[in-house]
Specification:
The chain has a single domain, classed as HIT-like (HIT family, subunit A). Helices cover 27% and strands 20% of the residues. The chain has 5 helices and 11 strands. The strands form 2 sheets. A 9-stranded antiparallel β-sheet has the order 1-2-4-3-8-9-7-6-5. A two-stranded antiparallel ribbon has the order 10-11. The relative contact order is 0.15.
Length: 273
């Protein structure tokens, strides 16, 4: 747990103008993509950053398209390398909370980066596996999308009904070592998956997105296989899937959608949104 009482004072959906739009408090100059320090950081010493995806207040990854999304991913990679080189950083965690239902306090498209001084517990649990769960033959019943260098599938035991794992077909440890070509492929499959989610669950669907990658400790992490978790908050159009006492108190998740059915629905969610 990290105690951050100063974050209580951060603005909640400010009405006096968006601070992330060009000319706003946090973005006084024009930009295409940008990173800024978080004014109300969850971690001290410049280890919490905000990534601004676009000057367009109403944009999204599908609206940005592959080229615009690739610019964001390139900045994620650059900041991962920069922050990961610090001696007080062990893990660079990239994430996006999209939509008011998930608790986003500013609507402008943005993601965030936390540079932890330790490996977070969930990432540590994934990395502690003796072998890489993402290498090997995938279960076709869980596949959502296939791209030349990337796959997207529903986890065999998802925490969220329409959760999707996005990962490179070959074993790549992190965003910086992926290289620009593979990162461009990530942009394409991320836009594809989010477009499918929007077609299935509705436009502007709230979601969480996070990146798991190799720690920056300099040690060998053989199970580190770069991947993204995409977790829409809805269990069907217009209905939020809430985590409640059983999930939070017992650690047992009750999924109202069969994972194979979720994969099939997302797989067939093609065409205009």
């Amino acid at each position: 747990m990290v105690v951050t009482p100063w974050r209580q004072a951060r603005p909640n959906l400010p009405e006096s103008g968006c601070p992330f739009c060009p000319g706003g408090l946090e973005a006084p100059r024009p930009y295409r993509v940008a990173w800024i320090p978080n004014r109300w950081p969850g971690l001290p010493d410049g280890r919490h950053e905000v990534i601004l995806h676009s000057p367009d207040h109403d944009s999204s990854f599908p609206a940005l398209g592959v080229a615009g999304t690739a610019r964001v991913i390139e900045l994620w990679s650059a900041r991962t390398a920069e922050l990961g080189a610090r001696t007080d950083v062990s893990y660079v965690f990239v994430f996006e909370n999209r939509g008011r239902a998930v608790g986003a306090t500013i609507d402008h498209p943005h993601s965030q980066i936390l540079a932890f001084n330790l490996v977070p517990p969930i990432a540590q649990a994934e990395l502690s596996q003796a072998t890489c769960d993402l290498c090997g033959d995938p279960d076709d019943r869980l596949i959502v999308a296939r791209h030349p260098a990337w796959l997207a599938r529903v986890p065999w035991a998802p925490s969220w009904p329409y959760e999707v794992l996005i990962f490179p077909r070959r074993h790549v440890a992190d965003l910086p070592t992926a290289g620009p070509g593979l990162r461009a492929g990530l942009a394409a499959i991320l836009v594809d998956c989010l477009s499918r989610v929007e077609r299935l669950l509705g436009a502007a669907v709230p979601y969480m997105l996070w990146v798991h990658q190799r720690p920056t400790t300099g040690q060998d992490w053989p199970a580190a296989h770069l991947h993204l978790h995409l977790a829409p908050l809805l269990r069907r159009p217009g209905t939020i899937r809430h985590l409640a006492a059983a999930e939070l108190g017992a650690g047992v998740f009750f999924d109202p959608v069969d994972p194979q059915a979720a994969a099939a629905q997302l797989k067939t969610a093609t065409g205009p949104s």
